[in-house]
Amino acid sequence: MKFDTPASENPIDRLTVVGKALDRIDGPLKTTGRAVYAYEHHDEAPDAAVGYVLGAAIAKGKISAMDVDAARNAPGVLAVVTAQNAGKLGKGKMNTATLLGGPHVEHYHQAIAVVVAQTFEQARAASALIRVTYKGEKGAFDLAAARKASPGKHIPKTSVGDFEDAFASAPVKTDRTYTTPDQSHAMMEPHASTAVWKGDELTLWTSSQMVAWGRSEVARTLGIPKEKVRLISPYVGGGFGAKLFVRADALLAALGARAAGRPVKVALPRPLVINNTTHRPATIQRIRLGAQRDGKLTAIGHESWSGDLPGGQPEEAVQQTQFLYAGANRMSALNLMTLDLPEGNAMRAPGEAPGMMALEIAMDEMAEALGMDPVEFRVCNDTPVDPSAPHRPFSQRRLVECLRTGAQRFGWADRHAKPGGRREGQWLVGMGMACAYRNNLVMKSAARVRLDTDGGIIVETDMTDIGTGSYTIIAQTAAEMLGVPLAKVAVRLGDSSFPVSAGSGGQWGANSATAGVYAACMKLRAAVLEKLGYAAQGAVFADGAVTDAEGRSAPLAQAAEHGELVAEDVLEFGDLDKKFQQSTFGAHFVEVGVDAATGETRIRRMLAVCAAGRILNPKTARSQVIGAMTMGVGAALMEELAVDLRAGFFVNHDLAGYEVPVHADIPRQEVIFLDEEDPVSSPMKAKGVGELGLCGVGAAIANAIYNATGARVRDYPITLDKLLGYLPEDP
Ligand code: MOS
Question: 260 CB under 6 A from ligand 1?
Answer without folding.
Answer: no
